[in-house]
Amino acid sequence: MAKRVTLIPGDGVGPEIVEACRRVIEAAGVSIDWDVQEAGAGVMEKYGTPLPTHVLDSIRANGVALKGPITTPVGSGFRSINVALRQELDLYVNLRPARSMEGVRSPYRDIDLVVVRENTEDLYAGIERKVDEDTAESVKLITRRASERICRFAFEYARREGRRKVTAVHKANILKFTDGLFLETARAVAAEYPDIEFEDRIVDNMAMQLVQKPHIYDVLVMPNLYGDIISDLCAGLVGGLGVAPSANIGDEIQVFEPVHGSAPKYTGMNKVNPTAQILSGVLMLRHIGEAEAAERIYRAVAEVIREGKRVTYDLGGDAGTSEMADAIIERL
Ligand code: NAD
Question: What is the Å distance from ligand 1's center to 266 Cα?
């Protein structure tokens, strides 16, 4: 029986790249029963919210969603719809692989890094206020529970994927209580995985080392804000947002989406790169037991990019979103 997956086209460039991704997955011969759910700016008027309850219910029921980017409309009552969705479904891991592809413009080659970002707390807990006209404050919330489950995920992932090392990233020299707790927890979890090498790095030093010698790193685990910044740095090492996929992972539910946003200025122009969305689809296929199709799609994308003829503007070509998808489908 075909696996049922929630499909959220999103808004902005979302519907164009999600359609490209869906065509590629179907061309690979994978049969999926898509449960299409609308969310984002377009449904605000109809449901009074960009993130209707029935969309969350669909994801809960299916356990898996493939999602396009969603704009956070001004005045929606959400700091970010995407952060709200992760918190609502307790998707506590944001997994962001960064792997070099030949043909993508980048001064680096052979990068293969995985950022495991805590997705529910830290400065994204939303505890922020204006104290008076000239003062504002935010609470950096770190708990042992969230730190432990994210670190455990990183080690389990490393073991499952045959990776050699986990590096915990923090600023515990200054933030002695919050990042201190994260580091203490990471060390305790690491002790349970003697087969995986463990080390820690202070986040500023980590940023410099990722630019100078990224090849010595493997799996990186860190609290939310550092994860946001360091994963964009890693995306930059392998060619930028157009090629960066991600997975939001909870105990029961996984939501796959590109790292980039809805790029509103390109809406409806058939212009942006569908690769990040398609590679998010590849991560989803691996998760639902379609590893062979996932590998074929990955290779087809890599070949089209290596050839460099039918690629989008950000990869130096002049193909549109749908033409690049067509080229990938022909390779399949
Ligand atoms: P963005 O990622 O949408 O776009 C920034 C720029 O990056 C674009 O203008 C474009 O030049 C480039 N770009 C992005 N995706 C590309 C692609 N696939 N191919 C080629 N070039 C690409 O960031 P933004 O402008 O800061 O955010 C726009 C909206 O998206 C905001 O409302 C934000 O809240 C939302 N957003 C959503 C998500 C998500 O759905 N997970 C993530 C980030 C931002």
Answer: 10
Work out the average pLDDT over 117-127. Answer: 92
For ligand 1, what atom is nearest to the CA of residue 274? 18
In the block, which residue shows the tokens 């039918």?
310
CB neighbour list of residue 212: distance below 8 Å, 6 or more residues apart: none
Q: Contact at 8 Å (CB) between 129 and 136?
A: yes
Ligand 1 center to 273 CA (angstroms): 11
Higher pLDDT, 106 or 118: 118
**Cα(233)–Cα(153) distance, integer angstroms:** 22
Dist CA 5 CA 288 (whole Å): 10
Q: Find out whether 82 and 73 touch, Cβ atoms under 8 Å.
A: no
Domain 112-237: state its class.
alpha beta
Which residues have a catalytic role annotated?
Answer: 124, 171, 204, 228
The domain at 1-91+244-332 falls in which architecture? Answer: 3-Layer(aba) Sandwich (3.40)
Q: Whose CA is nearest to atom 40 of ligand 1?
A: 69
User: What is the per-residue pLDDT across 264-277, written as a single tens digit (0 to 9) for each?
Assistant: 999 999 999 999 99
Q: Does ligand 1 come within 6 angstroms of the Cβ of 267?
A: no
Site to probe by mutation for ligand 1, drawn from 241, 246, 272, 305 as the one with most ligand atoms within 8 Å of Cβ, is 241
Same fold, 1-91+244-332 and 112-237: yes
* pTM for the whole structure: 0.94
Question: Strand 254-258 vs strand 245-249: parallel, antiparallel, or unpaired?
Answer: antiparallel
